[in-house]
Amino acid sequence: MLDLFTIFSKGGIVLWYFQGTSQLFTPSVNALIKSVILQERGGNEAFVHNSVALKYRLDNEFELVFVVAYQKNLQLSYVDKLLNDIQLEFRDKYKDDLKQGNVSRNFEFGETFKLLLKNAEEESKKEALKPKKMRTFDESQKSKKTVASMIENKKDAAKPNKAKESAKPAVNEVKPSEAEAVNGECDEETIKKNREKFFNRGLKKVKSSPSTPSRSPDLKKKGKSARVWQLGGTAKEAVDLDFSSEKGAEVDVNGTGDDIVVSEENRRWVGQMKGNLKDMDPESSDDEEEQEEDLPIEKTKSKKASSGGYGMFNVFKGLIGSKSLTNEDIRPVLEKVKEHLIGKNVAAAIADKLCESIATKLEGKVLGTFNTIASTVKKTLQEACVQLLSPKRRIDILRDALSCRDSGRPYVVTFCGVNGVGKSTNLAKVAFWLVENGFRIMIAACDTFRAGAVEQLRTHTRKLNALHPPSQHKGQQMVQLYEKGYGKDASGIAMEAINFARDCRVDVVLVDTAGRMQDNEPLMRALAKLVKLNQPDLVLFVGEALVGNEAVDQLVKFNQALADHSHMENPRLIDGILLTKFDTIDDKVGAAVSMTYTTGQPIVFVGTGQTYTDLKNLNARAVVNALLKA
User: Fold this and answer.
1) CA distance 162 to 168
2) How far apart are CA 38 and CA 449, in angstroms?
3) Cβ 373 vs Cβ 317: under 8 Å
């Protein structure tokens, strides 16, 4: 049973609606518009909000949206067909009014809707009673294989067969005497050799190899000797290699940075990161691509065109201009787009969903002349990807930290992620940026598992204080480290650090956590406990820009663990993403798309190098240009 069916324009004017219950569906429809339609997350899957499932169709020719809502526990197989039928019927019935833009009239569509709904329900019941049909050849996976892939498979399959064939004569050649004996044509010499082999067959096992030395009875069993590791070093060498203290000088345990000599190169960093972070540098290849698109038709017949000069957009040149695009026109193109996105490190599932969204946006659009097809498609793809990467809400850490300072409490940021992605290093970058803007920082060393984690943070603390000594900040130490050693409860250390920061009037607390794989349940429970007890203002997931499909798995399982192990009705989930190692991937920027699509949360920071100043804001257009570059 349907609860709601509504038709409205993309401008927000409701043309017609049907409501089967008294339930209020406005929040659910608004959530669909905000989270799916505006964020370019189209597809065939239903959008679930509270207890309601919603599906929609876009009519790009008349700028209409058709939305159906029903209870999520119902399995209604006719919803997709009903959406298509009503879309076609409504377009045909009110075609003239829609072309003229007359959307303020009264659309009497109730009787037609009831008839279409009744037909859809009856057809669904008949289909349920029919026996299940076997798949046709066109529906099978084998039909989707290309000729090239089938030829390659045949070659690969032929290799082991050839090996078997070449091995067969070798087996027959080993025993020629047996074949001759069967035919009865053995001569005396062959019989003599066979007899010698027969009698010597049992002696081979008795013979001992001459190379094995005989064990002497005089040798006594030695005791267990210590293993000597290659390049292990000696105790004397360990003293020479100990650089923790220089000539017996005391180490700066408090992290004031007085014992560190700052180089001139490092001093240039000071003052570079005041205010908001800079955006990433945009790609410089836009002008080249625009020149390629403006080529005349005659040049497309040259070698450049035959070699694919248009990159992945070359497939659009076969489409005919001045016509409405259909699903059949778009499907072959989407396969090329999907392959291109996966090649750029976008997760396969995300690439599939993104292509479905693009298909929804392109279907029904009327393109202009032949020369504008490539530019029109590229513009559509750019809009979809930029809309996806643009945050739904802006996270302004400087503004929020100032607000918390005025209210007399510290602003708390928790960093979490898998092993080896650079959590501690990028935490130090964020700390440097905040110190540059006048905030006092407390670093909570909650990684009590990895050896050297506390020492790493202590080194960063000393270096940050050396760059910003207390003498330049009215005698105040700008960065402090709160640590309790190893093997302790991380959530307890974080709580003590936050309370200590509140008493000492420290502005921001940065909580460093241990790296953990998404499948490690005990460590995921510990992370959920830390977030639940301390309720940080911002939970940042630190992820690598190098990953592909793994990014989706990590984010989904981290969010799921925070929700399952918190035992709260409204659990704290990941609020934002810090993307590291972005300078190592060239144009394979798909991880940014995968992470943003999976969580719906913005990428707050992008790590672009090894120094404290290598922290940037995400430039959505720069990422999209790199993503669409051939």
Assistant:
1) 10
2) 43
3) yes
CA–CA distance, 254 with 611 (Å, rounded to integer) = 23
Residue 399 has pLDDT above 90, yes or no: yes
Straight-line distance from the first to the last Cα atom of the chain, in angstroms, rounded to the nearest whole number: 48
- Tallying the residues shown for the chain, one arrives at 630
Tell me the Cα Rg of the chain: 35
Q: Are strands 4-9 and 14-19 parallel, antiparallel or unpaired?
A: antiparallel
Strand 411-416 relative to strand 441-446, pairing: unpaired
Per-residue pLDDT tens for 582-595? 988 888 888 888 88
Q: What pLDDT shows up at residue 258?
A: 63
Contact indicator for 459, 244 with CB cutoff of 8 Å: no
Per-residue pLDDT at 207: 45
508-513 and 441-446 as β-strands: parallel, antiparallel, unpaired?
Answer: parallel
In order, the DSSP letters of 276-326 are SPPBPPPPS-HHHHHHHHT--TGGGGSHHHHTTTTGGGGGGGGSPSSSB--
Q: Are 511 and 414 in contact (CB under 8 A)?
A: yes
* DSSP letters spanning 489-526: -HHHHHHHHHHHHHHTT-SEEEEEE----TT-HHHHHH
Binned at pLDDT 50, 70 and 90, residue 208 comes out as very low
Whole-angstrom Cα distance, residue 129 to residue 131?
A: 7
CB atoms within 10 A of CB 343: 13
Q: How far apart are CA 565 and CA 522, in angstroms?
A: 10
- What number is the average pLDDT over the span 571-575? 90
Q: How far is it, in rounded angstroms, from Cα 187 to Cα 173?
A: 18
Pairing of strands 576-580, 603-607: parallel
Question: Is the confidence at residue 518, as pLDDT, over 70?
Answer: yes
d(CA 313, CA 309): 9
C-beta separation of 600 from 388 below 8 A: no
pLDDT score, position 295: 34
Torsion (CA) 350, 352, 354, 355 in degrees, nearest 10 = 160
Return the structure tokens found at 530: 């830390």
* Residue whose tokens read 């609606």: 17
Q: For residue 583, what are the contacts with CB-CB under 8 A and spacing of at least 6? A: 607, 608, 609, 614
pLDDT tens for 125-170 read 888 887 877 778 777 777 666 655 555 544 454 444 444 444 444 4
* Stretch among 338-342, 454-458, 504-508 having the lowest mean pLDDT: 338-342
3-state secondary structure 221-246: CCCCCCCCCCCCCCHHHHHHCCCCCC
Question: And the tokens for 465?
Answer: 């204080």
